[in-house]
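Hi team,

As requested, here is the filled-out complex form for the S-adenosylmethionine run. I kept the field names the same as last time so the parser does not choke. Let me know if anything looks off before we queue the next batch.

— J.
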Amino acid sequence: MSILDKIQDLFNRKILRKDKDRWNYQYNLGRWESLGDIKELGRFSVIVGYTQFLKPNGKVLEMGAGEGYLQQRFDKTMYSLYYSTDVSDVAIANGKKHEDAKTKYLVADMNTYVPDTDFDCIIINEAIYYGHSVERVLDRFAPYLTKDGIFIVSINGDERNAAWHQMMDECSYPRIDQTIVKCARNTFYITVLGSKA
Ligand SMILES: C[S@@+](CC[C@H](N)C(=O)[O-])C[C@H]1O[C@@H](n2cnc3c(N)ncnc32)[C@H](O)[C@@H]1O
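And here is what came back:
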């Protein structure tokens, strides 16, 4: 990166507070590589288990996927399409080596992204905090769920997330199941929601 690019990057992060630049900066530093280690395996395994059990051979969209560690925990024979998407182009570039005919890594902002197909399962794993509210994120993506499609949302137990847990408890989408996973770094509340009638 040239000195001019570095100044622009600093300005975008610190003055304009552009989310994409802040995340890119952190991914360039390797700050999120730990998400790929064994201490996160518990929550990823529950999400993979729900998806493969409820929507075998389904089409999957993941929002806020980072470098794609969740997709990389899947048995690829168990889905027919997987879009791993994130606002950070650095994170997406790091995950791209895992692409194949049915696995795509795409730069997308969950607040503006318009999918080009529908999905049996839409996953928001530790990323719903960057949407406007639980209900608004789900409402944005509900039109892209197939009939009987599901959402899977993970919200961690950090006390700063109390409002997000409350929004999840009060949300108008029918709850199918919830699993609470206590991992080494945090506790994760993984909720499966159905489509509204
Ligand atoms: C805590 S990380 C979680 C990454 C991954 N889902 C995981 O659990 O390992 C949050 C992710 O949300 C992404 N993000 C932040 N704002 C976003 C937005 N508006 N749209 C899509 N992704 C966003 C960040 O780039 C980051 O990769």
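Two things worth flagging: The pocket of S-adenosylmethionine is lined by residues 19, 23, 35, 63-66, 69, 86-88, 91, 109-111, 125-127, 130 (CB under 6 Å). Strands lie at 58-63, 79-86, 103-107, 119-125, 145-156, 175-182, 187-194.

Thanks,
J.
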